[in-house]
Amino acid sequence: MKICGVDEAGRGPVIGPLVICAYCLEEDKLKELQKLKIKESKQLTPAKRNFFYKKLCELSKDFKFVALSASEIDARASTGLNLNELEAKSIAGLLDALLPDVAYIDSPISPDGAKFSSMIEEFLEHKSIKLISEHYADVKYLIVAAASIIAKVVRDQEIEKIKKELGVDFGSGYPADPLTAKFLKNNWDNQAISKYVRKSWGTIKDLENIKSQKTLLDFENGK
Fold this sequence. Notes:
Layout: E1 2-9, E2 18-26, H1 30-36, H2 46-59, E3 63-68, H3 70-74, H4 83-98, E4 102-106, H5 114-123, E5 130-134, H6 137-140, H7 142-166, H8 178-187, H9 191-194, H10 202-220
Parallel strand pairs: 1-4, 4-5
Antiparallel strand pairs: 1-2, 2-3
Helix pairs in contact: 2-7, 4-5
């Protein structure tokens, strides 16, 4: 039996992609996964994540990931999808490509993960794949923790590429990060940077409002 774990990294940031990974193993290899003693990505240091990433790639080549860009995330509204539906559609695509017998999925919907399974099934071509979606599945199932590690490492690699291209360290890309907040305040509407920024996020909406108010004030003052 082929078993798959699915998780994402980068759902909340305002900068960079949302990375979703589906990681598969044959059932008889699950004991080898247990021997690695992995944990879900948020419980690991960057060094540990990179270490386990290499081990997981050695253990199985049967995995895929997708990196949804900021523009793809922003465009979801024009296609009639909310973020959960966009993620569900992407997961369905990964599962249709990998064709596991069963997939354990970390659900963004709490507490009823079954609702997310139904959402994925709507986009799934191969309806025979058994879907088990649970909130905090990355803590409960090692196969989902494996997917979380790969997704996080790939997301971090993409962020480093963006930093190298822009020549600036803007932090983690999360709105609560002071370094990210400062960077966005000064650069959010810069053409070279904006393609990596999720303009549909509240953080950017607030900055747009501030700019609009300032422009109006300047106009009223004859500037």
